[in-house]
Amino acid sequence: MPTAMITGASRGLGAAIARALAPTHTLFLAGRPSERLDAVAAEFGATTWPIDLADPAGIETAVEPIVALDVLIHNAGVAFPGRVAESTVDEWRTTMEVNVIGAVALTLALLPALRAARGHVVFVNSGAGINASPGLASYTASKFALRGFADSLRNDEPSLRVTSVHPGRIATEMQEGLVAYEGGTYDPARFLSPETVAKVIADAVHTPPDAHVHEVIVRPHR
User: Fold this and answer.
1) Which terminus of the chain has fewer Cβ atoms in its 10 Å neighbourhood, N or C?
2) Alpha carbons 172 and 194: distance in angstroms, whole number
3) pLDDT at 182 over 90
């Protein structure tokens, strides 16, 4: 079976993506070692890869054994709710290190393996990567940067397929924190389910090889 590496697969959308791809792909679940990641891996017979996106220096060594990779899905990310005046430099630094620099470092380390498989790189971006989201200053900036990196990768690596997925708000733990910041009541029915977004991503991955999906935008139908 083709191989797929997923970051941030220990919960929420990442676990849903693993579930959507498990029937058709051998899964590599990348992230910091944790019981939750181990549990997801056990459910799907997947392999865990201990990778800390905030530590670019260790990424290349961690993925060195991978010689060919069909799909790389960048799903891991952090968000610190806050408007510009409320944000801190440390929050900006952490957001950029994980959401952008970590994704860049992992892609560069796996580039030979992706080229060998004529692979597909999927960036789970956000609506905030198209239109700035109020109360998510550093997160919005990181998603604009991630979109720029995806576009550059697509231009510079013609043998690869590169897709940016821009979902609306998803019913996840991260969303609960944002709703709390906004002073609202969390109702998962208002948002996209992780399973719905995972299916959209899996559909992009399963696109026939003569097609190249550059960008997918999906919003709640409510």
Assistant:
1) C
2) 7
3) no
Domain boundaries, the chain: 3-218
- 103 vs 196: CA distance, rounded Å: 23
- With vertex at residue 36, the alpha carbon angle to CA 30 and CA 40, rounded to the nearest 5 degrees, is 65
Residue numbers annotated as active site: 139
- Is 8 within 8 Å of 79 (Cβ atoms)? no
Q: What is the mean pLDDT of residues 36-48?
A: 94
Instruction: Say which residue, 19 or 178, is predicted with more confidence.
Output: 19
Provide the token pair at 118. Answer: 């004529």
Q: 70 near 3, Cβ under 8 Å? A: yes
Q: Decide: residue 90, CB within 10 A, 0-12 exposed, 13-18 middle, 19+ buried.
A: exposed
Tens of pLDDT along 61-117? Answer: 999 999 999 999 999 999 998 899 999 999 999 999 999 999 999 999 999 999 999
What CATH class is the domain 3-218? Answer: alpha beta
Give the strand pairing for 26-31 and 47-50.
parallel
Closest CA to 49 of 98, 13, 5: 5
Write the DSSP assignment of 29-93 as a string of letters.
EEES--HHHHHHHHHHTPEEEE--TT-HHHHHHHHTT----SEEEE-------B-GGG--HHHHH
**CB-based contact 48:29 (threshold 8 Å):** yes
Backbone angles phi, psi at 50, to 5 degrees: -70, 100
Percent helix, strand and coil across the chain, each rounded to 5? 50, 20, 35
Take residue 45 and report the two structure tokens written for it: 């017979």
